[in-house]
Every structure is written in structure tokens, then in C-alpha cells.
Amino acid sequence: MLKCKQTRKVQNNGSKNSGVRINVPEQIASLMELKPKDLVDLELQVESVDDVRLVITKHEK
């Protein structure tokens, strides 16, 4: 399995700040207790060409 992990900032509604941000759907953000500007870890898991997953976890400081 190929794994790639990065930490990114959650999108701040309408912010013009530079940097890489991701939009997390509201339902998922509330389940994960995320707020704008929280950091999340992104892990791309590639088992095969048909089995690719993006795992989003709240970044622990």
C-alpha cells in the first residue's frame, strides 16, 4: 500500500489567506468537531487503481 500524509488547514469561509486549504462538508466537520482554521491530517491510501481512499483526521497538537 502507498501512503502519503500531510497536514492542511480547514477552509475559512471566504478567507483570502494564502496556503493550501480544503473544504470539509458541514456534516463531516460537525461530526469531527472541526472549526474554520483547524488543522487536519490527510492520508492518501492507495491499494490499487480501483481502491483509493482519503483519510481525514483532526490534527492533534
Automatic annotation (TrEMBL):
Location of region: Disordered: 1-21
Extent of Polar residues compositional bias: 9-20
Name of the protein described by the UniProt record: Uncharacterized protein
